[in-house]
Amino acid sequence: MLRILYVLIAAVIALVPVHAQEADLNTLLEIHRAKIEKPSRTTIDPVLEELVASRLPGVAVFLEKWREKEVWQRNADGRFFFVGEADDGKLRLIDVDTGLQAGLADKSELKNLKPNSGVRGVIAAALVQFQLSDPDPERRLQALTALERDANQSHLSILRAAIEEETDPAIKIRKKRLQRLLTIKFGSDQATRVAAIKSFAGDPGVDARAALNPLLATSVAVFDAAPEGVNVAKLLKPGRDIDMAAAYQLLVDAGKARSAVPLSERKQALVDNIQDGAVAGMPVSSLVTQADRDKAYLALAAAGTVPPLVTVDEQSEAVTSHVFAQVYAEPDPALTTAARETLADIGNTVGIYQFLDLVLDSLSLASIYFLAAIGLAITFGVMGVINMAHGEFIMIGAYTGYVVQQIIPDYTVSIIVALPLAFAVAFLAGVALERLVIRHLAHRPLETLLATFGISIALQQIAKNIFGTQARPLTSPSWLDGAWVYNDVVSISYIRIAIFVLALVFLGLLLFILNRTRLGLEVRAVTQNPRMASSMGINPDRINMLTFGLGSGIAGIAGVAIGLFAKVTSELGSGYIVQSFMTVVVGGVGNIWGTLAGAGMIGSLQKVIEFFNPSNTLAAQTYMIIFIIIFIQFRPKGIIALKGRAAGD
Question: The dihedral of CA 486, 489, 495, 500: what is its sign?
């Protein structure tokens, strides 16, 4: 009995090395050595399946290294290694199992394995199951991104298993979504695929529509009778749903009708068969009309000289004796019905979100127009001055921001400094313009308009002389990069949000100044009745100067804001002067709330027109101007008219 026990123990000891050897990665690689040395897309799959099924800890690293062409093979024994640089110029061998150093070798003693792009793609697909369960969340996200770009049926079961192990809630949600998308395409049974399709009802994601649209792909097919055994999307009536010529060509392609002889070939056949100035006994001079030429061709066809002509009646008879239909590429009607209903529901949701996105775009554009026009509204309302140089104060503010960024490289700090500095520079420029020009042209609107127009051109030329004609960058801080994305339909850039907030801040600040300060009281008094304000001890000249400077300073701040997303050039302001005047006139001269309403109307109108005609912004501006002209005919004082004795002036 004891003797038998010794024999069993010896047998177990003898078997242990064999099992250890079977669990060795190098041994497994040696078994498939020939296929690894010369891999192809058709031969590598069994190797990868066995490597993955082995569950050996070094498989994932080996596959990654192999994909990246970092696996080497020793010529002497065919053993596989990773390598590193050694101090003496040799390559340091690294064991693929343990990751430990396994000696040194010259490069000539090794062969670098470089699989082609097709094999690397297959290896990458096999790596997914390791990456989806990787401890590093970033690697799991990378694997999901790779699957979203290119997945196959084998990945579906791998993804389902990875969902159960996922601990990160956000990544788990993304995995479940991808699993539903793959189920639509690769699901094994109808009920599961239909459930996955219906789960995306009302989902505006582009990936959902990309997964559903292929199910509704159709092609036109021709049948001898009512189609059976196919998923028909729509029966087509020749002459209404499909052109007669196209329908007959389908019959020809399907081998159900004779090919029609093209007109060019018939003409060439007549030319080739001219004998003694006649074709088939008909003089060439008599072949004037197409009917005569067809008659000659039919005569040649009757003689067997040319292919027979397919008449219109023959084509019509052939078409009407067959059935034409749009046929789904997906044979299961339940799937196409579910996809069609789900896409219709998604379309309704996308429409709602497109409207919301349009509202956000309109608010964004309105805030820009408000900032650009509010200064003009104040000066125009108080002084009645048509300042054609207002756009150049916007340009001055933008260039001020650019200069500040050349001095202060920190973009956040530079913007904080640039905003008040742009206000100060533009304020002083406005005061100088009012003192030197505007004051001397009081109550002379035509001369004021011409003078400010000339100053506008002069300021643009000065800017070109100083900064050149090339656009200058005004870079936004990094925290303003990118956009707030709600879904695949609704998004808005952070710069636009910042400008919207800035417009709200200035709206509140101006309301406070005009309603809660002595300056505001005097401005409102001069706006409504300058003579009465003067008799009450208010100096209209001083108020005009400060008001013009305030309006110019606000335009300078608007220039910094606009320069963050537009090109800073000498013509920057001229692109907003027309919209600024339209905003002021439509909203109501001299009224902040009117300017706000006008900016909202102009911005919304422009975005709506651009939505229906996105490829032609010039047409959008033209339609907008026409609308404003019509609007002014019915409400000449604007949306919110000025109150007071001066309102009727």
Answer: negative
